[in-house]
TrEMBL record:
Gene responsible for this protein: smc
Assigned protein family: Belongs to the SMC family.
Entry text on domains: Contains large globular domains required for ATP hydrolysis at each terminus and a third globular domain forming a flexible hinge near the middle of the molecule. These domains are separated by coiled-coil structures.
Functional summary from the UniProt entry: Required for chromosome condensation and partitioning.
Subcellular location as annotated: Cytoplasm
Summary of subunit composition and partner proteins: Homodimer.
Species the sequence originates in: Sphingomonas horti
Name the UniProt record assigns to this protein: Chromosome partition protein Smc
């Protein structure tokens, strides 16, 4: 799977609709302090199903919604759309949209159809990408790898090896 485009609206500091093309190869995000680099990476993790507000530097999930500034009022929703190239379907592309509204929680769409958070997590877990993928290197992540407990480090390696999706499936199967 290869990410092609990320669209954000009302997500953290990205209040106005913003579109980013993601070209093949390694992508780096550079810019002055506070310009939104980490927010971008968080948007990518969020659309892939990140369920922890803390790992998005928020107290609650609604903290991802643009909170307003002295000049601009707050928004009541945030939406992130990810377009990816995949060999999984005939179109060769998938489009995932996550939207959160104040007081209404998150909703996901996959190629225009309503899906569950779990469906989205599984989709990306199998592709060795995912909200916690080591392919997304955020600030402090390198030192986190070094300081990790062995079990945590194993989880990182499994994710990198593309076998973490199997655990999601096994848990899923055990619940049935
Ligand atoms: P650094 O180089 O310091 O790591 P950065 O480019 O990673 O900076 P971010 O942390 O992505 O910057 O962006 C921080 C900015 O995003 C701050 O100005 C903060 O006020 C703003 N921000 C975060 N959450 C929201 C929100 N919900 N609504 C509005 N603005 C927000
Ligand atoms: Mg940052």
């Amino acid at each position: 799977m290869r990410f092609k485009r990320l669209k954000l609206s009302g997500f953290k500091s990205f209040v106005d609709p913003t579109e980013l093309r993601i070209e093949p190869g390694l992508t780096g995000v550079v810019g002055p302090n506070g310009c939104g680099k980490s927010n971008l990476l968080e948007a990518l993790r969020w659309v892939m199903g990140e369920g922890s507000a803390k790992s998005l530097r928020g107290g609650g999930m609604e903290d991802v919604i643009f909170a307003g500034t002295a000049q601009r009022p707050a928004r009541d929703f945030a939406e992130v759309q990810l377009l990816a190239e995949t060999a999984d379907n005939d179109d060769g592309e998938i489009e995932v949209v996550r939207r959160i509204e104040r007081g209404a929680g998150s909703a996901y769409r996959l190629n225009g159809r309503d899906v569950r958070a779990k469906d989205v997590a599984l989709l990306f877990a199998d592709a060795a990408t995912g909200a916690h993928s080591p392919a997304l290197v955020s600030q402090g992540r390198i030192s986190a790898v070094i300081a990790a407990r062995p079990t945590e480090r194993r989880a990182m390696l499994e994710e990198a090896a593309g076998i973490a999706g199997l655990h999601v499936r096994r848990k899923d199967a055990e619940q049935k």
